[in-house]
Amino acid sequence: MKKKMLFCLVFAAVVLTGCVDQQSLTEEEIANQNRVDAIVTNVLFDNELDEAASYNIHKDGFLVIKFAETVPFEKYNHVVETLRSNGQMNGVRAEQGGREVCPVSGLR
After folding, report:
1. Report field, pTM of the whole predicted structure over 0.90
2. Residue 81: helix, strand or coil by DSSP?
3. 2 within a domain of the structure (yes/no)
4. Is residue 84 situated within a structural domain?
5. Which contacts of 69-74 are long-range, i.e. CB under 8 A and separated by 24 or more positions?
């Protein structure tokens, strides 16, 4: 019984350590994400879309942004082009309703 318990504890420690390692970010990656987050937040707020979009910033600075179905083409297209022209991120991918909109371009 004690051997099984010890094995389970060691196994859990190894598995959890592996998970933590894969999700760790360097200081540079954290700073980059924070910089991109500030840019995206400001652009969405300035265009009154802060409640109609969600986004994920990859550790390399690539942005995936999802717009609500109610956002018209002109608005999300303007936001995406503004973000892509900023130069602080490695690229922007936009989605609406589960489909890609404004195909990816402007990768550095």
Report:
1. no
2. helix
3. no
4. yes
5. 69/96, 69/97, 71/96, 73/101
